[in-house]
């Protein structure tokens, strides 16, 4: 949105979409990894019935983060430009031209230890904005913790900003029950609402690229 003589002019949907895709390049693969440093589960100041389970999630988060940052986890990447999921070779990441036609609509970085998925960093781009979401998993493959950051480009006109951000932390039990959820808004215009978010995955097998990953792991063990 541009401001001129106290009058506002809304950016066209096409320009907003291209703007969103360009930002995705900046906050995508590199940004998705970077936000995790700020996504640590919060320490509960008061004891609740879920305190022990959330303390376990904090231990899982720290263990997985240490494995990833120390290079002790394998990495497999996938992308989807609207025609289904494909595996992305490391050579493709730096050589792809940066344009709206080549930027993936969805992308995922999978971290593994001994062929077990421990973390998935997923990114989804749409005309409404960009969703960056990091999943941490229990040993049984169920989701333990989700850190999500959404950059939202749609909503009411605002003289202060053409976008706003929603940050969420979701804690889940071994069986998928929601233990706690924390939401923080940034630069949110009064009355603005976030559009529906992409589907939340409750376990590793629910990701559409999971069969491709299993196929890749089988090739590596042959």
Key terms for this structure?
222 residues; 26% helix; alpha+beta; single chain; eight-stranded antiparallel sheet; globular
Offer a concise description of the structure.
28% of the residues are buried. It contains five helices and ten strands, in the order ββαααββαββββββα. It has helices spanning 13-27, 29-34, 51-69, 90-95, 210-221, and strands at residues 2-4, 7-9, 74-80, 85-88, 106-113, 116-126, 129-137, 143-152, 164-172, 178-186.
Write the layout of secondary structure elements.
Layout lengths: L1 E3 L2 E3 L3 H15 L1 H6 L16 H19 L4 E7 L4 E4 L1 H6 L10 E8 L2 E11 L2 E9 L5 E10 L11 E9 L5 E9 L23 H12 L1
Portion of residues within helices? 25-40%
- Count of discrete domains: 1
Please trace the helix and strand order, writing H or E for each element: EEHHHEEHEEEEEEH
Biggest sheet architecture: 8 strands, antiparallel
Low-pLDDT stretches are 1-11, 21-37, 93-102, 156-161
Task: State the distance separating the first and last CA atoms.
Answer: 55 Å
Query: How many strands?
Result: 10
């Amino acid at each position: 949105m541009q401001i001129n003589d106290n009058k506002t002019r809304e950016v066209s949907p096409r320009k907003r979409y291209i703007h969103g895709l360009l930002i995705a390049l900046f906050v995508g693969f590199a940004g998705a990894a970077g936000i995790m440093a700020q996504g640590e589960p919060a320490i509960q100041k008061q004891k609740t019935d879920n305190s022990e389970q959330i303390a376990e999630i904090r231990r899982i988060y720290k263990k997985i983060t240490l494995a990833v940052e120390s290079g002790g986890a394998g990495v497999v990447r996938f992308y989807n430009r609207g025609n289904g999921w494909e595996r992305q070779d490391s050579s493709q990441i730096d050589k792809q031209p940066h344009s709206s036609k080549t930027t993936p609509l969805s992308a995922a970085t999978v971290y593994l230890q001994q062929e077990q998925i421990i973390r998935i960093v997923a990114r989804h781009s749409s005309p409404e904005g960009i969703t960056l979401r990091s999943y941490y998993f229990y040993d049984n493959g169920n989701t333990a913790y989700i850190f999500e950051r959404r950059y939202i480009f749609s909503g009411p006109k605002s003289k202060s900003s053409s976008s706003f951000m929603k940050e969420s932390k979701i804690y889940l039990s071994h069986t998928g029950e929601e233990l706690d959820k924390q939401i923080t808004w940034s630069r949110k215009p009064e009355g603005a609402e976030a559009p529906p978010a992409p589907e939340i995955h409750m376990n590793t097998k629910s990701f559409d690229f999971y069969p491709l990953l299993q196929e890749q792991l089988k090739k590596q063990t042959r």
